[in-house]
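ESCALATION

Customer reports they have been waiting on this structure for their group meeting. Please prioritize. Original submission:
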Amino acid sequence: MRARIAVAWIAVAIALPLAGSCFAADPVLPSAALPPPLLLPPPPASDSTQSLRLPSYVPPFKLSNEPPKLPEEALCRQLTGLTKLMLTISPVGSVVDAVVEKSSGHPSLDSAAYAAALEWKFRPAFASGVPVHSRARVPVDFVAPAEWPHCSQGVRVLTTYTLLAAEDTDTGATILTPMFAPSDKVSAVVEYVLTSPDAVGESLSVRWIYLDDAGHPVIHHEQSSPLQEGGRKRFVLSGTQPGGWKPGRYQIEVRLKDDVLGQGEFAVR
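Update from on-call: job pushed to the front of the queue and completed.
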């Protein structure tokens, strides 16, 4: 019995050094040398528990649109004012209805604002990310221009200028110029618009005026053209001089009765 115990102790004594040699290649580090644990964010919630948050409502937004111009009647009567519109805007951004919520006090201004608004474009309103019908109040302010045009008796002359040769020549060629030779055929072009139907049947007269050396006007000759309705109109009158134009400065005066509505100038050298 004692012999067996002695043999067992001998076997343990031999095995312990061998076990130490096996674990020596992979030592256990002290806890102070270990890196801190990596903290990861919590996993995102599933689509069933979290959705994209969108504004509940985004109002319509007016894009770059041309404001209405003062109508001819308002220009001649020097009218200004503020028109307030209530617009109905479709999901594609077009104006499907317009109502004058507050008048400017002048029907011509309200009509101009209404007509212009129907052509405007908007970024539509959005409800939870979906474009929807919407309504918007839009003020339209008609302000005075830098200079009011001269109007008289329902007519406004827009421009007066001179051309070399008549526009109804065989070639149809015209040259816009304020300078002519004595033998040239001078044409006066007058553009106008009626601001009142009462002017229909009247005539515009064109005076060709020569300015002498002292600058005094001398009427060379006078022509007329009947007024026509229907928007912007123009007429061409040709002035000729037997033996040629006298060198010097000339004026073209556009008149309705005693009122001068437009002027132009040219020279003959």
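Sent to customer with the following note: The chain has two domains: 57-142, 151-268.
Escalation resolved.
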